[in-house]
Write a structure and sequence with these properties.
The chain is an alpha/beta fold and 400 residues long. Helix content is 40%, strand content 14%. The chain binds pyridoxal-5'-phosphate (PLP). Residues 38, 98-100, 124, 171, 175, 203, 205, 231, 233, 235, 241, 246 line the site of pyridoxal-5'-phosphate (PLP).
């Protein structure tokens, strides 16, 4: 059978393949320490589950408005606007089955075929996939390691802007790096967007997964609200990854087009789940705070365990639930040059399952440092300690 040519341009999320590999080993009886996927092993708060049941029992089981029920759009405009210091209205909101659908819809709305779109590398792999799938030209910009953590390489970003550049994807509170922009970095980026008249997809999936301070959105900087679409999701903050509930929030004329894409695809986001979203935003926030506290404990455990492993260096981000350790030293000790080989050996020998730099974009020519990504959202502290302890044992053998 012959399928459409454009499918050759569609990428994927190879982290799911690592999950399948680990799953196969688990079925053979191997104990697995799951650090590969950004999912949570924490249950959705009970008040949100109850609200979904109530909505179903109240008959909220039919179609509903394409862009989302008014009550949820109001709650999102209020909550997201307040946290960012922006006056959003329900017309600024298009409810989606998850945050992810916003990526492809943004490309369809702002990008013509042949237009260039900047996106972070390393970064979430779906950006590149959706840019190329919809006929754009993906232009990666580099994030680089410094003593203070990962930062945007502004010179690299600027060198990639051309008259064909129409948009940039910006993922503050960054997956996989856990990077957070300084005010100066965010301002520099905003100035570039205004100067070059770029749209911005501000992927704020981790805006609320913060262990220090408060979140800041590029949309709140002068001249940015009118050119920025925020990707919002309930997935992480409320441990609702499987519910599939998110939104695009931004200028009303852009939002209208996003919702028209929904008419053509989903019709609407599941009705009763939207009512659960209303409860999530307007009900008690203590359960969400408890999720952050649980994650904070895991971060401390994982960071301490990683820093004890010979040949591993790691920054301690104060956001997201990812760590991105530099394992160049460990690989040298084991005489391994390919980080994927390192991953496979660790999975087989210790059951510790993680992704690598290669799952988050194409490494740059001459990139010498090697990294892995650990997500600590799906594994409890005692298991984090046990699993990373096994990695430590292996590497200590090479020191002796
Ligand atoms: N953006 C980033 C950076 C992510 O890491 C994820 C999920 O892991 C998403 C967007 C999409 O999340 P969801 O579709 O569950 O809202």
């Amino acid at each position: 059978m012959k399928f459409a040519d454009r499918l050759n341009r569609l990428g994927g999320e190879t982290a799911f393949a690592v999950g399948a590999e680990a799953g196969a080993l688990a079925r053979e009886g191997k104990k697995i320490y799951p650090f590969h996927l950004g999912d949570l092993n924490i249950t959705t708060p009970q008040n949100i589950i109850d609200a979904a049941y109530k909505a179903m029992n109240d008959g909220k089981t039919g179609y509903c408005p394409t862009g989302g029920i008014l009550e949820l759009r109001e709650a999102l405009a209020q909550d997201v606007g307040k946290a960012r210091g922006i006056d959003y209205t329900p017309d600024s909101v298009s409810v989606q089955p998850g945050g992810k659908p916003i990526i492809g819809k943004f490309m369809q709305v702002v990008m013509n075929e042949g237009d260039e779109v900047l996106y972070p590398n390393p970064g979430y792999p779906i950006y590149e996939s959706q840019i190329t799938y919809f006929g754009g030209v993906p232009k990666p910009y580099r994030l680089m390691e410094t003593d203070a953590g990962f930062v945007i390489d502004m010179d690299d970003l600027i060198s990639n802007i051309t008259p064909k550049t129409c948009a940039i994807v910006y993922n503050n509170f960054h997956n996989p790096l856990g990077a957070k922009s300084t005010d100066e970095e965010m301002k520099q980026l905003a100035d570039l967007c205004i100067k070059n008249d770029l749209y911005v997809l501000s992927d704020e999936a981790y805006f609320d997964i913060l262990y220090e301070g408060t979140g800041k959105s590029i949309a709140s900087l002068p001249g940015m609200e009118e050119r920025t679409l925020i990707l919002y999701t309930f997935s992480k903050k409320y441990a609702m990854t499987g519910w599939r509930l998110g939104a695009g929030i931004g200028p009303a004329d852009l939002i209208k087009h996003i919702s028209t894409l929904n008419v053509n695809a989903e019709s609407c986001t599941t009705h009763f789940i939207q009512w659960a979203g209303v409860e999530a935003l307007t009900g008690p926030q203590e359960p969400s705070k408890a999720i952050i506290e649980e994650l904070r404990g895991r971060l401390d455990t994982a960071y301490d365990a990683l820093t004890a492993i010979p040949g591993v260096k790691v920054h301690k981000p104060d956001c997201t639930f990812y760590l991105f350790p530099n394992v160049t030293g460990a690989m040298k000790m084991m005489n391994i040059s390919d980080v994927e080989e390192f991953r496979k050996i660790m999975l087989k020998e210790t059951g510790v399952s993680f992704t690598t730099r290669k799952h988050f974009g194409t490494p740059y020519p001459g990139e010498t440092e090697q990294y892995i990504r650990l997500a600590y959202s799906g594994i409890n502290s005692d298991q984090i300690e046990e699993g990373l302890g096994k990695m430590k044992d292996i590497l200590e053998d090479f020191v002796r």
